[in-house]
Design brief:
8-stranded mixed beta sheet; alpha/beta; single chain; 16 strands; 14 helices
């Protein structure tokens, strides 16, 4: 059971989480930092780097007060409250030591890791007060990433099971999401949304019955509820469908988090802490349903077209184009080709000028900024007739810059202008659902 930042965002919500855990029985629980804490810690590191010591000291003081207030609201047992208070003092005194240190990337990651340590410490003491047979595990003992920043899944599997074996009587294990160690043994993390990844990696490592991701939304919706009225949760998704939706904008899930669960064939269930009775969305190796399931959108896309009169029947052209993007570590989202050109989309303009300069060696280059990828996901095997026609017909009023179909059995992607995004999402909902 993984609980996100909003799920542990206050003392009352922590109590609700523990009630859900108690009802579930034998579980492993992964917690994010309290909502707002990670952003506060990132802001703190910036203040220290900018030598704004008065501001940094105030940020630590404010955060410390927030956690002492939360502890008093959460824990009633005087001895346990005293323990919580003493441990908070230790953590915040450690944090103050960074005020006098030079801040490199290593220290930044150490500071950001405090959020998960604080939330799990408080919840573990509240579990104790409630009489739960729970053990708090340090995620940095078993969660490790490789030199390339990817989780070392074999290491995680061996070590999480070895650490758990030390406590044969435990019914509940509690640990931090997001944080880990790198190959040098330093504190590191699994990037934004990494608590989902932690839960999936641990679930796969211990061969869990199910991996539950608890957030503040009742499952993955069939469209973006911020822009489209009347969206509804999707009951079931294939792992591939969920991964496509997560990558192309559905914020409820970390795009890579389903991979360990997929390979271990363990269902992932998305549930709502605020509405625990809602069925949510279950993600598994589902059988084909011959239906379109959902729509998502990814913003801040740049489209690049390379037109070359030399491309006609020329081998090696695409390789040269892709090598330019590889050289600048810029992933490509979409690609479409014709006899005289190729269009690609990227979501990172950091090295755009250098990329364009190199691409001009191979042909005439044009760029469109502020584009959006709209992704339609479902059982889109090419033998299922008419689905692509339904999608294109729904958007007949919207200018479409690129269409990508056939690269996956689960996705049709369309590139449109930013100003057409909301109308496109609404039209797709009207026509498809």
């Amino acid at each position: 059971m993984k609980f996100g930042g909003t799920s542990v965002g206050s003392a009352q919500r922590m109590k609700n989480v523990v009630a859900l855990v108690k009802a579930a029985g034998n579980v492993t629980v992964v917690l994010s930092a309290m909502s707002g804490t990670t952003n506060s810690l990132i802001s703190l590191t910036q203040s220290i780097k900018d030598a704004e010591n008065a501001n940094a000291t105030k940020q630590i003081d404010d955060l410390e007060k927030k956690y002492h207030d939360t502890a008093r609201e959460l824990i009633s047992d005087p001895a346990l409250l005293e323990e919580a208070s003493a441990r908070l003092d230790v953590y915040f005194n450690e944090l103050r030591k960074y005020l006098t240190l030079p801040i490199t990337e290593k220290e930044e990651k150490e500071i950001v890791a405090f959020g998960e340590k604080l939330s799990t410490m408080l919840v573990s003491l509240y579990m104790k007060e409630k009489g739960l047979n729970a053990v708090l595990l340090d995620a940095t003992e078993f969660m490790r990433i490789t030199p390339s920043g990817e989780p070392d899944q074999e290491y995680v599997r061996e070590n999480v099971n070895a650490v758990m074996a030390r406590y044969p009587e435990a019914e509940i294990f509690l640990t931090q999401g997001f944080i880990c160690r790198n190959h040098k043994g330093e504190i590191d993390n699994l990037q934004r949304g990494g608590s989902d990844y932690s839960a999936s990696l641990i679930g796969a490592a211990i061969n869990a019955e199910e991996i539950q991701i608890w957030t503040d939304i009742d499952g993955m919706h069939n469209n973006d509820p911020r822009f489209v009225e009347g969206t509804s949760p999707v009951g079931e998704l294939h792992f591939e469908e969920a991964a496509e939706l997560a990558y192309f904008g559905a914020k409820i899930l970390h795009p890579t988090c389903v991979l360990p669960a997929k390979y271990a064939n363990i269902p992932v269930r998305l549930l709502n802490t605020m509405q625990p009775e809602a069925p949510g969305t279950v993600i598994f190796n589902a059988k084909p349903t011959h239906t379109i399931k959902a729509v998502a959108a990814k913003d801040n896309i740049t489209a690049i077209k390379i037109k070359s009169s030399h491309m006609l029947l020329a081998y090696g052209f695409l390789r040269k184009v892709f090598e330019v993007f590889e050289a600048y570590q810029t992933p490509i989202d979409m690609i479409t080709t014709s006899e005289v050109g190729v269009s690609v989309s990227i979501d990172n303009e950091r090295n755009l000028d250098k990329i364009l300069s190199e691409l001009r060696h191979y042909g005439e280059v044009t760029v469109d900024h502020d584009m959006v990828i709209v992704c339609v996901v479902g059982d889109l095997e090419w033998q299922n007739r008419g689905f692509e026609a339904e999608v294109v017909n729904a958007l007949k009023e919207i200018p479409v810059r690129m269409i990508s179909y056939g690269g996956s059995n689960y996705n049709i992607s369309l590139l449109i202008r930013k100003e057409d995004k909301i109308r496109a999402l609404q039209l797709l909902s009207e026509h498809l659902f």
